[in-house]
Structure formats: C-alpha cells, structure tokens
Specification:
- The structure is a single chain.
- The chain is an alpha+beta fold and 449 residues long.
- The protein has three domains: 37 residues, no CATH class; 196 residues, MetI-like fold; 125 residues, no CATH class.
- It has 13 helices and nine strands.
- A five-stranded antiparallel β-sheet has the order 2-3-9-6-7, with no helix packed on it. It has a four-stranded mixed β-sheet with strand order 1-4-5-8, with no helix packed on it.
- A hairpin with a 5-residue loop joins β2 and β3.
- One of its GO terms (cellular component) is plasma membrane.
Length: 449
C-alpha cells in the first residue's frame, strides 16, 4: 500500500480515484443520453396529451371559456354516457373473466391431446387480425338472413330440427267467404259443416314462388254422406279472371294444410289436405266449425336478431372473446409449463381426482399468471372502441355504446363537444389507474424475497 506525497509521488495504501457510475456500472450521463429520446417521446405522446386533456375538460366547446366542473356534470347527466358507463361495467366484468376462463380450459386440455399445438395455433390465430377485420367478419356472422349469417344459419337449423315449419307462411282466407280470423293466428268458418256437403277453403296471399312447381291443380271434393269433405286451394287464376270462392281451371291445390273440426272450443277431428288439395273428416265432424290453425300460416323462423337492442352488447363481447381467448391461452400455457409436476403427482397419489387436482393445485399455482391475464384484459376492454364502432349498426349503436366510443362521437361527431369529450377521457384515465396500480403493486409483491 502506498500514499501520495506532497510532491505527487504515490504512497502505498492510497485507493484509486472513484468514478461515479450507475447501478448497471454505466456512467449516469451516458445512461441519461440513451434515455433522453425515450423520455422526449413519452412526454410528447403520453404526458402532454394527458395534461392537455385534463386542462381542456374545464373549458367550453370552443376552448376559450372556463366552465369548471360543468363538463363533468353534463357528462354524468347525459343518458348516452350513463349507458356507456353501464356497458363498460358489463365489459369489464364479463369479457376478461370469460376470456381467462376459456384460456385456462384450453391450456389445460391441450396438454392432454396429441394435436394440442395445432389447436393452440387455431385458437391464437384471431390475434393476428385487427379489431377492424374482426368487426367486419362478425358483421357477416351476425347477419339476420340465415342464408348469409352463419350464426342464424346454425340457429335456424337447430330450431327447424325440433319445430315444424308452416306450410304457407303469410297465407289467409279470401275475404267474404265466411272464414274469419280467430285467436292464435287461426281462421275459423262462421257456419258449421255437414256430412255430404263439401266445404271449400279458398286461400290467397301466397306468392307464386312459394307454390311448389309440381303442385297439382285443385280438385273439387266429392260429396260423401259419411264424411265431411272439402278442398283447400289457392283461389287465384293465373292471368286474371276466375270466380272468387270457386275452383277455376288452373288454380293450384294446397297440400299439407291442417284442417280441424272444432265444437265448443274442442277439436273433435283433424285432417291434412292431400296432393290435390282435398281433405276428409269423419262423420263426428258434422255440426262443427272448421278451423285452419295458425301453424299453417306463421312466418318462417329467421333466427335471432343478434345485433338488436337486447343482444348487441353480448354479441360484441362474444366476438371479443373469440379474439382474446387465444391470448389468454398462450400466457396461461406458458405459466402451466413451469408448474412443478411433482405436486400434481403427489396430489394424485394422495387420492385426489383430476377435478380436485385442477381446483386445489393447478389453479392456485397459476394464480399470478391468471391475475396478469385478467388485469391486462380489463385494461384492454376499458378502452374498447373499434369493435363496437364497426359491429353495432346505427339503430342500436346507442344501446352498445361504451366510453371510448362516446368520447369519439362527442369529440368528433356532428355536434362536437370537445370539452365533454376531454372529460370522458379523464374519466377513462381514472378508471384505468386503479387497475394499473393493482398490477404494479402485485408485481412488486412478487419480487420480494
């Protein structure tokens, strides 16, 4: 050891000169030079817009008059904004929870199948497209017409499997023929019928395209003293002419129409018209009224109005889950790969079944990962905008409104209210901050030894 003397000579034992460095062993001014561009961008793209929005929220539409908290008062008194707040609450509760739950199920199940990698790729694939593209895709999926919309094509197929379709939707009896409309969309004759006296049932209101091409010409029923007979036909002569209530040449038979004989409100007999339009009821039908049930004429089932006022928000949430369940699956799958298998095997050895292993071992060990996924999705849905804007039609956009969409409509719509729009932006920020604070606190707690 040497120390420096008065003449500058080194004296044994003197420590070397100390250069101030950062934690990573880098000089502070060098680290500042590298951080400066990022800090400038952060200030320009994040800090300044936030500060300007806060200040702008206290001014009027033109930005010249100070209005204090009036914009916030208008914000919470506006029905559209209250609807947006309610929908945002539904989004925050439902979308992250369902996406995380599906991701967990997918991640656990795909570990047990050979084609798990292919399945994961298919489930994650929607993440490769934008919200705009997803909105366009689901606009087609939710089309009302079953021939165009996939959702209604499946739904109507299931419905028609268990429910009979009507023979001639929209048909009705020819006026002034003694057949009146009754309860349930049915039609009933005013007079009672007699055996041996054929009762014709003329119908109109059926488009020519609805008549089968191989439909036979209507035939007048033969009188039968032991039965009540008659004909159901389309009382329309191609090219015009013909006599109302009479079977004319060229008029088509209506096959498959159900005819009921009703006495004192009770059905005593029923029959169905044949290929030539004729029907035959037993003699017990004599003295009863004839009724054509409403099931003959109900409109074809066209499925569900997915984007109507009652279902538009759940439908849009469904499209969001389709996109983000893959994201949750990948993160949870990565966490699942680090779970010690010995703990699961020990639980099985102790007699736990697979459900108990999943609930008591797998889920608790994955709790940190599940928290990360849920919080990330909560932050994401708080600012959801483009999916709602694309999917919700104009008629139901107010019913599907969310805060980010309301901000856009108020700030850049026809009657721009940028002061109120800035207030919505501040409210959105305040809603996101607690979630971010929770996430930061959780990460710090996990880093502690």
């Amino acid at each position: 050891m040497t120390t420096a003397t008065a003449g500058g000579a080194a004296t044994p034992g003197a420590p070397p000169p100390v250069t101030k460095k950062g934690v990573a062993g880098t000089r502070a001014w060098i680290a500042a030079c590298f951080l400066l561009p990022a800090l400038v961008l952060l200030a320009a793209l994040v800090v300044y817009p936030i500060g300007y929005s806060v200040v702008r929220s206290f001014f009027d539409t033109e930005g010249t008059g100070f209005v204090g908290l009036d914009n916030y008062g208008e914000l919470f008194s506006d029905p559209g904004t209250r609807t947006a707040l309610k929908n945002n609450l539904v989004w925050v509760i439902v979308a992250p929870a369902v996406s995380t739950a599906l991701g967990l199920i997918y991640a656990v199940l795909t570990e047990r199948v050979r084609w798990g990698t292919a399945f994961k790729m298919i489930v994650f694939m929607p993440m490769a497209i934008s919200m705009l593209a997803a909105g366009i895709i689901f606009t087609l999926v939710y089309q009302q017409d079953p021939e165009r919309g996939v959702a209604n094509a499946v739904w109507t197929g299931i419905h028609d499997t268990f429910s009979e379709s009507s023979a001639y939707p929209g048909a009705r009896p020819r006026p002034n023929t003694g057949i009146e409309k009754t309860a349930g969309g049915s039609f009933t004759t005013e007079e009672t019928v007699r055996a041996g006296d054929p009762a014709g049932l003329p119908l109109v209101g059926i488009p020519p395209a609805e008549i089968p091409k191989d439909a036979a010409e209507a035939v007048a029923a033969e009188p039968d003293g032991d039965k009540v007979t008659g004909t159901v036909w389309l009382d329309f002569t191609p090219g015009g002419g013909g006599e109302a209530g009479v079977i004319d040449r060229g008029e088509k038979a209506l096959a498959g129409v159900k005819v009921e004989a009703v006495r004192d409100g009770e059905v005593v007999a029923s029959a169905e018209s044949g290929e030539d339009g004729t029907y035959s009821l037993p003699a017990s039908a004599a003295g009863a009224q004839l009724r054509l049930p409403g099931s003959n004429f109900t409109e074809a089932y066209n499925g569900i109005n997915w984007l109507g006022p009652n279902l538009v928000t759940p439908a849009i949430i469904g499209s969001y889950i389709w996109m983000w369940a893959g994201f949750a699956m990948v993160l949870i799958g990565a966490g699942l790969a680090s779970v010690p298998r010995e703990l699961m095997e020990a639980a099985r050895v102790d007699g736990a079944n697979e459900w108990q292993v999943f609930r008591k071992v797998t889920v608790p060990l994955l709790a940190p990962v599940l928290a990360v996924v849920t919080v990330t999705l909560m932050i994401n849905v708080l600012k959801i905008f483009d999916l709602v804007y694309i999917l919700a039609p104009g008629a139901t956009q107010n019913d599907a409104n969310v805060l980010a969409l309301q901000l856009y409509l108020l700030s850049f719509g026809t009657d721009a209210e940028q002061g109120v729009g800035s207030a919505i932006a501040v409210v959105l920020l305040l809603l996101v901050v607690p979630v971010m604070a929770f996430n930061i606190r959780r990460m710090r707690r996990e880093r502690r030894p």
